[in-house]
Amino acid sequence: MADNSGKPDMSEATAPTRPPANIATNDRATPSLVYRALLRSIKSGLMVPGAKLPNQYELAQQLNTSRTAVRSALAMMERQGLVRRQVGSGTYLTDDADDVFERMDQTAADEHEDVPSFAEIIEGRLLFEPAMMRLVVSRVDDAEIAEMRAILADILEAPVWREFKERIYALHRQIFASTKNKFMIQIMNSILDDRRAVQFDGRDTDKPAPDAVRRQTHKDLELIVDAIAERDGKRAEELVSDHLMRTLATINIWQ
User: How much is the pLDDT for 200?
Assistant: First the structure.
C-alpha cells in the first residue's frame, strides 16, 4: 500500500512478503534465477525496504525450487546489501534496499546499435574473467596491489557518478594489467571504450553517487583485491564470478 506521496507504507513492512511464484519447474533452478525473481519482487513493490521475508522453506515452496537455491540467492543478496539476517527473527530487506538499484546502469544502448549492451559485456566477461584471476595472482606484484588499494580508497570517496564509474574502471584496468598479458589488457581497453560510449547517455553525471552504492561496491571489489593480495586464485575466481553473476541478474530484471 502507498501513502499520498506514492511511496510504500512502511508501517506494513514487518509482514512477510510474497515473491512471484513458480519461477522454476524443478529443484535444479539456479540461485541466479531465484535471485532475479526476488529482485523483481522488490522492483514491483511486492517486497519493500524493511520487510521481513518468508523463511527459506516457504520461499522454496512459493518459488517451486530447492532450499539450497534459495539459500544461495539470499547469500548473494546479503553480500550485495539487499537483505540482513537477524538471529532468532528472520531475514529482512535492508532499509536502503532501494538505493542498491541505483547501481543499475540504465544506458541508452538502443541508440548505439553497434555497441554491445551492458548485459552482453557482462555475459562475455563471465566466459573468461573468473578464470583469468589465476593468471593475475601468479603475476601480480606488491606495487600493483598497492595501486589497487589506492584506487579502492578513491572509489569510496568519489563524489559524483562520472568519477565513481571512472575509478571503478581504473581498478578493472589495473587488475587486467597485472596479467602482464597485452591481449588481456587490449580486451579491457575495448570493454571500457564500449562502456563509455553508452554509460553517460541520459544520466546526470554530476549527480552524487549514493553512499550505500559506494560502500557496497567498495566492499565487493575490496574482497576481490584481498584475494589477489593473498595470491588465492580460487577465491578470487569465485568472487569475480559471483560479482558478475549478480550484476547480470540485476541488469536482467530491467529487461
Answer: 46
